[in-house]
Amino acid sequence: MWWLITVLSFLLGRVCDGGITSSYIREAAPSTEIPKKDFPPPSGYNAPEQVHITQGDQIGRSVIVSWVTPVNKHPKYMTYWEANDKDGIKRNRVRSKTTTYRYYNYSSGYIHHATINKLEYNTKYMYELGKGNNTRRFWFTTPPEVGPDVPYTFGIIGDLGQTHASNQTLEHYLGSRKGQTVLYLGDFSYADVHPYHDNEKWDTFGRFVEKSNAYEPWIYIAGNHELDFAPEIDEHSLFKPYKHRYHVPFRASQSTSPLWYSIKRASAHIIVLSSYSAFAKYTPQYNWLEQEFAKVNRSETPWLIILLHSPMYNSNNYHFMEGEGMRVVFEPWFVKYKVDLVFSGHVHSYERSERVSNVQYNITDGLSTPVKDPSAPVYITVGDGGNIEGIADSFTEHQPDYSAFREASFGHALLEIKNRTHAFYNWHRNQDNVSVSGDSIWFYNRYWFPKEESTYSSSTKTA
Ligand SMILES: [Fe+2]
């Protein structure tokens, strides 16, 4: 086996003190933004646009459908029906709640959110928005009932933006035809890098991702580019565009903020955290997470997954140590509750850690080196969607022991949960054909099968 690892390492790049730093270089699509005019609204007066869906409750029997009508708030409803009712005879109608917002010199269209409840599991539904000639039709499939051995595949995308590279990422993800729900790791439109946080960029982003997000739920988390705090133009309200445009089912998990919440889907319990909200002891997020961990039932949902924007283990010089504050506060719980995986974005490259923890440190003992820990999660950074800020191509020169694999390429990942013990994970770089894997590994569940995984990446064809 050793010779295979040696050859693999030689092919991939160099082996440092830690894991593998891939020196893979092949030309990818540029991370320059696609012009606004190339994301036109759908034709027709007041046609519904920027359609996106997410889970609407904690167990997957509800969907929140959101869309924008640009000039008139009517019609304020959507219709839906089971897809096997081909003519849509038994249609149901749901009213939307409509909101608008202003941001400096920008006024939004009418943003609709409609929650459909009591859906059947594992069922395809059609839905329609608009009326007359401007009616638009979409569909989605509800997940299987929550249970311990339910297979399910999540796509993982972060820091997407709206560049040519972003488009390549999304096309490759859709081309794999495997993902059933996207875990979206924050940093959406990058409107805030434009003068006055040009909020038309939020509209073009919504149109860009509609081809995925109108048909499958994205589980949203907020990144730093959603903060939109700009006192110089009198914009003081944190997360204003994000909170108006993207609704999440936070109350279903007894959260008091849309910035942290949880859902169960198939065999996974997914916890969303906010890197840009208070998390120290006694804060609302801290108190909520303490109670949330105590509720997790691994007999019902074996896979415990955390999503947060700023990675806790990151050996890239970009955003180095930014996640350290939250690591100090939350990592002991991640180990105690045997979290399987922590996905982050923020750093615009790819990195996967060993199972490590650094919880023994206290202010007097000086023990501050991460150590291998079978109860610890694997930390994975997938901030490589391909946004306007470009690639984070400056890894620390000494690859730390905790870092198993890292590469400065754009891409996305897939997590294929097979049953309560095994999940196949695969990261795909945009430069390759969709059947080629950039990094793949079988993960073993920490609660049901806490065996050590092979940490070495295989760069192989997966199909
Ligand atoms: Fe970020």
TrEMBL record:
One of its GO terms (biological process) is cellular response to phosphate starvation. Its cofactor is Zn(2+); Mn(2+); Cu(2+); Fe cation. The keyword Iron applies. It is an enzyme of class 3 (hydrolase). It comes from the Eukaryota. Its EC number is 3.1.3.2. Residues 1-18 form the signal peptide. InterPro entries: Calcineurin-like_PHP, Metallo-depent_PP-like, MPP_PAP, PAPs-like, PAPs_C, PAPs_N, Purple_acid_Pase-like_N. GO terms for cellular component: plant-type cell wall. The keyword Hydrolase applies. GO terms for molecular function: acid phosphatase activity; metal ion binding. It catalyses: a phosphate monoester + H2O = an alcohol + phosphate. Residues 48-142 form the Purple acid phosphatase N-terminal domain. Keywords: Glycoprotein, Hydrolase, Iron, Metal-binding, Signal, Zinc. Pfam families: Metallophos, Metallophos_C, Pur_ac_phosph_N. Belongs to the metallophosphoesterase superfamily. Purple acid phosphatase family. This is Purple acid phosphatase. It comes from Lactuca sativa (Garden lettuce).
